[in-house]
Design goal:
The chain is α/β, with parallel strands linked by helices. It contains 16 helices and 23 strands. Strand 17, helix 15 and strand 18 form a beta-alpha-beta unit. It is elongated, with a radius of gyration of 28 Å.
């Protein structure tokens, strides 16, 4: 294929990378993939060849300087790459330079890559290869005694491959995550393109990123992009691997599980809606999630309920207190409950797990309770990438989704949860629950801040929770103060306190007509 700049590209097939590269690697050129230990260099090299065989029928040659071919064949088993079969079919060839390097004595005098280059050229011609990877070039460059010789020999092998018309990926080690690009400081100047993989330790957790530093003579997306490595998916760059346009938007409505809330939202949620429900502890977020799931089961639809706050046993007990039999719903095959604490995996790994369940279980609805629990283990930026990628997967399948989020306080003044502020512009429906003081009592209030493409109730309504669930009542007209900082809808509202120190003026608790204008 040809990129937007007219330069021919060869798609890598790596999840999300071709979006960054604007189509793939420049065809017929060499690319340096540099990274520290554990950053994913070898996997990038393997996937470049394997996806080429798998998706495009492009034969490939893998030159290994460290791992033996048998180790590579074993390591990619979970990814579903039948390398042995491809070798038998003449689609894949190894050039094993690992044994020779480990048996080499310390270099005395001159050393060159002439023999190795000849072996690679022979393998390329034998199977008609279009792709070649060298992993990792640093293992052989250490045999040279001077930087000038390193540069000359590297240029020699790269020039030979370019002359064959193959697209080449060369991996190399880095000693630090930032500043220098490669170990010897010359690799990035010899090769046409440079990609850096990083594996940074921040807040006691590893975070992998990928950056295209140079595409000689052609364009690409700049900056660092978060990625993860899945045992089945390989490299996955988030959220680009999942973003895609949709041909239509659903007009079908589904129930929230609460008729009163459906009425407030203009008749329920659109089938492909992503709904954000935010409120302090005890306002009914988990309750709403459970009834949302029960509504799906009652309608004969599959629902995935993912919880990060409670164990499966706690969730079943709580559901029973409201007359819901979670075990029976699961036994029907229409409900799948996944309960995990945030700390057991990174947000990217949680995302891949949720995606696998969605692909296997094929639910019509998904409830995640609560997103804010993930803030314990990750930055807001990474969590936002999680939500963007998840939203892309859900929307493409028209899955009705309920996301819940909680601030850090309960009835004391507190800021809005960071994730809610970030996610607001990505959701279709935003619902706010808060504690309020009315007539000298602490009560609960609910407001619908937005429903895209639909009219909705703009009033603040009192609601109660009993052993049968949530009951939404009449609009609250006697508010004296709000006990938790109100959450502004997209675009923001004036949150400044009133002169009396009571309700924020212009906030979502201020009076509005139920027949107010339709949301966009």
């Amino acid at each position: 294929m040809t990129g937007i700049d007219g330069i021919p590209r060869i798609p890598t097939g790596i999840n999300g990378f071709d979006q960054i590269a604007l189509g793939g690697l420049p065809e017929g050129r060499s690319t340096l993939v540099a990274g520290t230990t554990g950053s994913g260099k070898t996997l990038f090299a393997i996937e470049f060849l394997a996806r080429g065989v798998q998706n495009h029928g492009d034969p490939g040659v893998f030159v290994t300087f460290e791992e033996e071919p048998d180790d590579i064949r074993t390591n990619v088993t979970s990814l579903g790459f039948p390398i042995t079969d491809w070798e038998a079919a003449g689609k894949w060839a190894f050039v094993d330079a690992s044994a020779r390097i480990t048996q080499e004595a310390p270099t005395i005098g001159s050393y060159d890559l002439g023999a190795l280059t000849a072996r690679i050229e022979h393998a390329v011609r034998r199977i008609g290869a279009r792709r070649v990877t060298l992993d990792s070039i640093g293992a052989v460059l250490t045999n040279f005694t001077g930087i000038g010789v390193v540069r000359h020999e590297l240029l020699r092998i790269v020039s030979a491959l370019n002359a064959l018309g193959v697209t080449t990926v060369v991996t190399a080690e880095r000693s630090v995550e930032y500043n220098s690009v490669s170990r010897f400081g010359v690799e990035e100047f010899v090769l046409d393109n440079v990609i850096i993989l990083r594996n940074v330790l921040r807040q006691e957790r590893r975070r992998r990123t990928i950056e295209i530093v140079k595409f000689r003579g052609t364009s690409h997306r700049t900056g660092e992009w978060l990625f993860t490595i899945g045992p089945q998916e390989g490299i996955v760059i988030m959220p680009l691997a999942f973003l895609q346009s949709r041909e239509r938007a659903s007009t079908e409505r589904v129930s929230s599980g609460n008729p009163d809330l459906d009425a407030m939202c203009g008749g329920g949620f659109f089938r492909d809606s992503i709904v954000l429900l935010t409120g302090p502890t005890g306002t009914g977020k988990t309750l709403t999630s459970l009834f949302f799931a029960a509504s799906a089961v009652e309608a004969g639809e599959r629902c995935l309920l993912q919880t990060f706050d409670e164990t499966h046993e706690q969730l079943s007990r709580n559901a029973a207190s409201w007359g819901l039999d979670l075990d029976a719903m699961e036994a029907s095959g229409l409900l799948r409950v996944v309960s995990e604490y945030p700390e057991v995996a990174s947000p990217e790994e949680h995302f891949l797990r949720v995606r696998r369940v969605i692909e296997e279980f094929r639910p019509s609805r998904v409830a995640i309770d609560t997103l804010s629990a993930l803030e314990r283990i990750v930055s807001s930026r990474a969590l936002l990438d999680f939500v963007i990628a998840l939203g892309a997967v859900l929307r493409s399948r028209e899955i009705t989704t309920l996301l819940t989020s909680a601030p850090t306080g309960r009835v004391t003044p507190t800021v809005t949860p960071a994730i809610a502020m970030e996610v607001a512009s990505l959701t279709d429906v935003t619902i706010l629950m808060r504690y309020v003081e009315a007539r000298g009592q602490i009560q609960r209030g609910i407001a619908v801040l937005q429903t895209r493409g639909s009219v909705h109730d703009h009033s603040i309504r009192r609601f109660e929770i009993d052993d049968t669930g949530m009951h939404i009542g009449e609009p609250m007209t006697d508010l004296s103060s709000v006990l938790s900082t109100a959450y502004p809808p997209p675009g923001g509202l004036d949150q400044s306190a009133s002169p009396s120190g009571g309700e924020p003026q212009g906030g979502p608790w201020s009076a509005r007509r139920p027949d107010a204008d339709r949301d966009g």
